[in-house]
Amino acid sequence: MASQQSIQYSVVVPAYRENGNIRPLVTRIFAALRRIDSPVPAEQTEIIIVDDNSRDGSVENVQSLQQEGYNVRIVVRTTERGLSSAVVRGFQESRGDNMLCMDADLQHPPEYVPTMLASLSPTHTFVLGTRYGKGVEMDKDWPMYRRIISSGARLLALPLTTASDPMSGFFGIRKESFLKAKTLNSQGFKIALDLLIKSHIPPYAIAEVPFSFGVRSEGESKLTGKVMIKYLEQLAELYWYKFSALVVFIIFFLFIAFFLLLRTWFGSLSPDAQNK
């Protein structure tokens, strides 16, 4: 197992009742990292599973993988819940300066992990796996209603960021950029979008890696009506965070314009104005 000092890359995986996916996820990630053409060394990479107290055998599964030599550990949260807060906790626990977040359900292909990690650099402080890249058939295995929801969520976020697909959840960030983010929304649905805005990532610092969604093989989908409502609430908060100064300026401008209009109107009704 790699020493703590040699770790340069951290892969954070939020999980709840994903025990059936943990072994294939970990083994496939390290198999990709150990390929001769991998741009990222396996011995410099760690995987952190952030589990919301699933009690489904995930802890024992990770212990077994550790005994087999895989650099993976699990953080079990007993007092917190939620995807975004799990990602934040994982980033806080990370030893590497280059941090990647991916789902446990294998819909984010583990074979893309080396490319995603290698895309991070001092000039590219954020990397995004995008389903809207050239040659990618977006969500080709999803039912129509899922495609509509995904496209609609992306359109609603367009005024906030130039990133093509902040909804994918497959993303990475440099630690120095992560530490700049304040007042992160731990209850939000899309932590990538929150980090893009609150870490003040400029468009030129975003690297994008096209990928096609895989198919969930174990566990249950997390897309529910409650999740969609939380996403809308998150959007409202981010719009205010980014555009609040503009909103105040517009209100102030309208107030001044209204005041000048009233002054002109009352001036036109004064005796002096009528005698001219």
Produce a short descriptive summary:
The protein is of the alpha/beta class and 276 residues long. Helix content is 43%, strand content 13%. The mean pLDDT is 84.
**Low-confidence runs (pLDDT<50, min 5 residues)?**
none
**CATH domain class name of the largest domain:** Alpha Beta
Q: What radius of gyration results from the CA coordinates?
A: 24 Å
Averaged pLDDT: 84
Estimate what percentage of residues fall within beta strands: 5-15%
Q: What oligomeric assembly is this protein in?
A: single chain
Say which CATH homologous superfamily of the largest domain is assigned. Answer: Spore Coat Polysaccharide Biosynthesis Protein SpsA, Chain A
Strands across the major sheet, in which order? 3-2-1-4-6-5-7
Write down the domain tally: 2
Shape: elongated
**Biggest sheet architecture:** 7 strands, mixed
- Architecture of the largest domain, according to CATH? Alpha-Beta Complex
The CATH topology assignment of the largest domain is Spore Coat Polysaccharide Biosynthesis Protein SpsA, Chain A
Please trace the helix and strand order, writing H or E for each element: EHEHEHEHEHEHHEHH
Helix coverage percent of residues? 40-55%
Terminal Cα span: 92 Å
| Main structural class | alpha/beta
Protein name: Dolichol-phosphate mannosyltransferase subunit 1
InterPro entries: DPM1-like (IPR039528), Glyco_trans_2-like (IPR001173), Nucleotide-diphossugar_trans (IPR029044)
Function: Transfers mannose from GDP-mannose to dolichol monophosphate to form dolichol phosphate mannose (Dol-P-Man) which is the mannosyl donor in pathways leading to N-glycosylation, glycosyl phosphatidylinositol membrane anchoring, and O-mannosylation of proteins.
GO molecular function: dolichyl-phosphate beta-D-mannosyltransferase activity; metal ion binding
